[in-house]
Every structure is written in structure tokens, then in C-alpha cells.
Amino acid sequence: MTNKIVVFGGNVKGSKFIELKDAADKLGIDLELVSYKQMSYETENGKILIDGKEMKDYDVYFFRSTKKYWEEVSLILDNIDKNKIVVDPIVRSGRPGDVCKAYQMLVLSQAGLPVPKSIYGSLGFLKKEAVKRFEFPIIIKGSRGDRRKQVFKVYGKTDFKKWVDELKVLEKNGENKYMLQEYIVNKEDFRVMVLGDKVLGVMRRGIGDNPRLKNVFEKTDLPDKVKQLAVEAAKKCGIWIAGVDVVFRNDDMTKPLFFEVNRTPNYTRFVEVTGIDVASEVVKFLANLEK
């Protein structure tokens, strides 16, 4: 018997949600999509309601997105049996999955996994103290948000001061916190797609300042040891469905550095270059999870 699955999100009519539903239908697996906007709560009956009716009982609760809906997520978690399967463990622990980059560097380093040198703190601390422990260029990285919007390469002291002054507004408003990270000189990084104990595949991404080479993607592979470390990194971060990002110091495959574990990553490009049906693999993974 396979698990009965519910997938929560904000806009469950989005393509990634529909792909999961279509894959489940083809596989004959019971999967429902539920938007947080369909949820309500009444004190008179003490029940979580979906479209005005008591929430059904499921085996697996997959919170695909949580960013703007942490109160709804918390209410659902508080009202389901503790033995139910929650994806991912980081959600069950009560930690919003989108506010975790500094946390990831901490737990990965504590576990002995190789990560770039990183220092987290207030922008004031980073400006006065932490920056002294790095050589330029360096990276300013937001603890929430993706690399396109919250990762900044800084070339020198003047540039650093400019960025700190600009980011202070976001910090003051509670929109983000920041850390400094060493800049790793490299021409490529790798996305390892992980499902539980399994590596689905690996994608290479060209990076750097050359526009002809930047954001060029292709299917590739990595040494088994590196892939196993990627699985361990995802586990340490409490993420079962993960896109683990790794670079190599001096392009040496024996010197991996894990700089991010992405929860429920966007896999469109990964599917294009690898040919792997990620949606079907995710559904099968969820359907066969054991309590």
C-alpha cells in the first residue's frame, strides 16, 4: 500500500504543483494539492478546515512552500498526529525553510562537512570585525532568498561599504540577515539532486564573468564520495528533497565545498539537461516513505 499524500503551497495551480499531480495520476498514487488560502480555523470546533470542511487524514504532509505561510504551516503541524510523515524534517522542527543559509553553514561545519569559510552576524559586526578576516573579493550572502537576489560579490573596501549601507535597510526591517563568505575562484559549480538516500543526478553550471560561459548547463557526474557527502549534507540540514550545490577548491575534485542545500528546488533546467522526470521521482519517493 502506498501513502496518501497532501502537498501544501500558496499557488497550487503553478506548474511545479501540477507536474506532481499529473505524475501521481499517471502512477495511480493518491495525491491532493491544497492551497494555504483554502485553510481556515474555528475556535468553536477546534478543527483545521479546508474549504470549510474538516481537513482529511493523510499519511504524508509535504509542505512544498512555506515562505509567506508559516502561521498556516504551524497550525497544521500542531493539529496532525505526531506519527505522520512531514516533508521535510526541517519543517517539522519549526524552522522556516527559506531562512536557513547561515544555519546550514553552522550545522554542516559542525558535522565536519567542508564548507566555504563563513562568518554570520550583524552588518555592523561584519563591517567592523569580520571583514578583517577575509581577503577581497568576498561574498556578502543573505540568510534568506536565492543567489540571484541575495548574493553579492564585493571587490574592495569602497564596494563593501556601499553594499553594507544599502543592505542595512533590509536588516533593520527584519527582511534579511547576512554573512560574509570567502570567494572561491572557479569556473563551474554543480547541482546534486537528492531524494532521501538517493542521488537522482548531477548538473554542471558554468559561472564567472564571461557571458559565453556563464549559466551554461549540462549533465555530468561526480565521484561517488562527493555524491554521498551531498546526501549527508541534505540530511544534516533536515531536507529530504534537495538541490545540493557544490564547488571544488582549485578545481580539485578531492576538495569539495558545500555552499547551499536548497529545499524543494526548481528543477526545470535539471530536467532539460538530464532527461530525468523529477516530478515522478518525487511522487514515488513520497509514496514509499515509511513512518
UniProtKB/TrEMBL annotation:
Gene Ontology cellular-component annotations: cytoplasm; ribosome
SUPFAM superfamilies: Glutathione synthetase ATP-binding domain-like
EC identifiers of the protein: 6.3.2.-
Keywords: Ligase, Ribonucleoprotein, Ribosomal protein
A single BP term in Gene Ontology: SOS response
GO molecular function ontology, one term from the record: ATP binding
Limits of the ATP-grasp domain: 105-287
EC class (word): ligase
Listed InterPro entries: ATP-grasp, ATP-grasp_RimK-type
Protein name as annotated: Ribosomal protein S6--L-glutamate ligase
